[in-house]
Structure of VWFD domain-containing protein:
Amino acid sequence: MCDECIKQICVEGQITQINRSHHCPYIVTPPSCELLGFAVQVNGDKCCPQWECPCRCSILANLHIITFDGSDFGISGAASYVMASLANETIIVGISECLSSQMLNINSRFGYTPFRRFDFEIIDTGSMYTILTPAGINIQWFHSTGIMVIDTGTPNKKLATTGLCGYCDGNRINDLTLKNGTVLKKDDDPVTFIQDWTLASTETGIKMSRRLEVNCSTSNCSECFRMLQSETFALCHAQVSPEMFCELWIRDSLFVNNHCSALAAYVALCNKFNICLEWRKPDYC
């Protein structure tokens, strides 16, 4: 079958082939967006695609958050947190001590899927809840891993958000921005940032930090690498490398002290790349 990106033209009686992909001003290979997931094509030209990393915030089941720009930190305590706030819309995630039912809580009212009202929609695809908001935010909540992904598009067509998910501009320096506009430094403990975006009426009074001020260069990550050596996890190494995950692992005290929680987080991140891993066993996690 003829390649759509190759054209044949006649030059001085000779047939010459021109590959449009070779003359593309963009890098046609999708970039690695690391823990944000797959890159997104932002134009419609299959021969000269333009790629961008998505504005995609993830909340893992163990409450480790990866912001729109790829910063990460863990939260502790049952409370309601502002994940993303816009001028006319706010995404709040409520963390409870235990699950009471399989129903969704919508503005403090319980409802079943599918749920549609005005420009708000919740459907259950079988593998996840998909929530579409009037402002254009897409939320995916996966059944198998518990990971919640908040997607606002790409920096090229971004929604100006604040909250725990940060502001998507490709710059991690301003991820920890307080309500008053103050930006915490990269090495500051995120507890102040987390508290600022916690609804005051839901605070439990417990201010625990999961952040460890270390990395794999200054501390021993060998235990993390050992856990991921299994062939079960090898299927995902090309997308979520052990080196990348272990840098996240060593900074979170929950992961360091709970191997099952750490591996569940790794599997959830693999799920963002459409990789499903069966790793739990009756005698393991």
User: Anything to note?
Assistant: Residues 6-52 form one domain. The longest strand covers residues 6-11.
